[in-house]
Design goal:
Rossmann fold, alpha/beta, binds S-adenosyl-L-homocysteine, binds iron/sulfur cluster, 6-stranded parallel sheet, 444 residues, binds FE3-S4 cluster, 22% strand, globular, OB fold (Dihydrolipoamide Acetyltransferase, E2P), pyruvate-formate lyase- activating enzyme
Length: 444
């Protein structure tokens, strides 16, 4: 085996996992390819969160199988693996999706990938699966993480105990676990010394982090943020995704006195109706959510909020939906992800009798998105004329153009030569659309 191809579905945690999987493969001497036809090893890192996400895998596996057959005619073998949340949810069933699948690993067992490849190299006729919730932590068995560029991610927490009634995550990622403080710090130090200027701490429920320090004492996210915030050379710090009920005073204080902490917070609310929030088993009401927002705004008036919404949850009435629209008007989210409720096998809400027709879900999503997009566009347009610090991460589509992110995660383009790449630069915003800004470099 010489080359590998990975396709990643789902959330940032999967993106992080794919990056670590690539690390395992590169240690074995494999090289990345972006062309599936050239790959000796093809891996799909999958998501089970909504039906659409899970279904995408079918068509990809179909295509991968055709490639596998074509390569076989040229005398080349291809190993196809499925990893991630679909594997955890479907277990052995995952092999029914396609004959072409050689191995399947759940999201908590991908550190065993090396062993699996050894087994397959010995006997190519077998199918290997591992969906254990292992006692050991995968992080203890991975080699050091490499910086992905100036912006790097670190998984600090995984899994979830909240059991929202619509959600598969507690089943696919298991119960909540936090990595020890020292492990996270070691990874952070390494990434910063490799050139990362921005770190984003990841977890399905990142603000319920409770990792142990050296002395065995449990520490919260605020403690970890402060420790990482002290690292020399680091310029920006973020964390995602947070659960509203777990935002504590310590964390709010970080937003007041840590300049390095970016003024952007992804705080999913799902619905503005208390009745629906209860049916969803969310541990917060609309009023409690708004209170958290107020306290954060008091700590740092610059904070922009992002959120997630589900429309058409079982039993959602017109009034419930209106309450969601009202909440959007109150908070004025700077960006948001919104979804039609998708019943997931094994979750309680999928069994609720009062499911809504697709037509209603579709209409509500369109109405909600129109509102969300208008606020997003507004926010972007408010930045026109202002000078903002931008971290340039990539070359733009056109020559002489760079793209980067503002503190609020907005995409921004500017005419600039390569010397500004991987740097934080002052940019004066000249125009804005819903999805991006463009501007001119003022000075460094
Ligand atoms: N842990 C995060 C979210 C993880 S899933 C949190 O609770 O904030 C990402 C988003 O997918 C959720 O916020 C939710 O809006 C959406 N989602 C999860 N399950 C869904 C389902 N069954 N149907 C539609 N959207 C869903
Ligand atoms: Fe899913 Fe709820 Fe946990 Fe988020 S908090 S991962 S939506 S169960
Ligand atoms: Fe999807 Fe698993 Fe993330 S279900 S959203 S990849 S935790």
């Amino acid at each position: 085996m010489k080359t590998y191809f990975i396709k990643t579905f789902g959330c940032q945690m999967n993106v992080y996992d794919s990056h670590r999987i690539a690390g395992i493969l590169e240690q074995r001497g494999l090289q990345a390819t972006s062309r599936i036809e050239d790959a000796d090893l093809v891996i799909f890192n999958t998501c089970h969160i909504r039906e659409k996400a899970a279904e995408k895998l079918f068509s990809d596996l179909g295509r991968a199988n055709l490639v596998k057959q074509a390569r076989l005619l040229e005398g080349k073998n291809t190993i196809i693996g499925v990893v991630g949340c679909v594997v955890q949810a479907e277990d052995e069933q995952v092999f029914k999706r396609s004959d072409a699948v050689d191995f399947a690993l759940g999201p908590l067992t991908y550190h065993r990938l090396g062993q699996v490849l050894d087994e397959l190299e010995k006997d190519s006729g077998i199918q290997v699966i591992d969906t254990e919730f292992p006692a050991e932590s995968k992080f203890d068995f991975l080699s050091e993480n490499k910086a992905e560029g100036v912006c790097s991610y670190i998984a600090i927490q995984e899994g979830c105990n909240n059991f929202c009634t619509y959600c598969v995550v507690p089943y696919t990622r298991g119960i909540e676990t936090s990595r020890p403080v020292e492990d996270v710090l070691r990874e952070a130090r390494k990434l910063v010394s490799d050139g990362a200027l921005e770190l984003n701490l990841l977890g399905q429920n990142v603000n319920s982090y409770h990792g142990e320090d050296k002395a065995g004492k449990e520490r919260n996210l605020a403690y970890l943020l402060r420790k990482i915030g002290e690292l020399d050379g680091l310029k920006r710090l973020r964390y995602t995704t947070s659960y509203p009920a777990d935002v504590d005073d310590d964390l709010i204080k970080c937003h007041k006195d840590m300049k390095i902490l970016m003024p952007y917070l992804h705080l999913p609310v799902q619905s503005g109706s208390d009745k629906i929030l209860r049916a969803m088993n969310r541990r917060h009401t609309k009023a409690q959510y708004l209170d958290v927002i107020d306290r954060l705004r008091e700590a740092n008036p610059q904070i922009g909020f992002a959120s997630d919404f589900i429309v058409g949850f079982p039993g959602e009435s017109d009034d419930d939906f209106q309450a969601t629209l009202d909440l959007v008007d109150e908070v004025k989210f700077i960006t948001a992800f919104s979804f039609k409720y998708s019943p997931r096998p094994g979750t309680p809400a999928a069994e609720y009798p009062n499911q809504l027709p697709e037509k209603v879900k579709k209409e509500r999503l369109a109405i909600l998105q129109e509102k969300l997009f208008a606020y997003q566009t507004d926010f972007n347009q408010q930045t026109v004329g202002k000078t903002i610090e931008v971290l340039f991460e990539n070359k733009g589509r056109h020559a002489g153009q760079l793209t980067g992110r503002t503190p609020w995660m907005q995409n921004i383009y500017a005419e600039a030569n390569g010397e500004y790449l991987n740097k934080i630069v002052d940019v004066k915003v000249e125009s804005a659309t819903m999805n991006s800004l463009s501007g001119k470099i003022v000075r460094m």
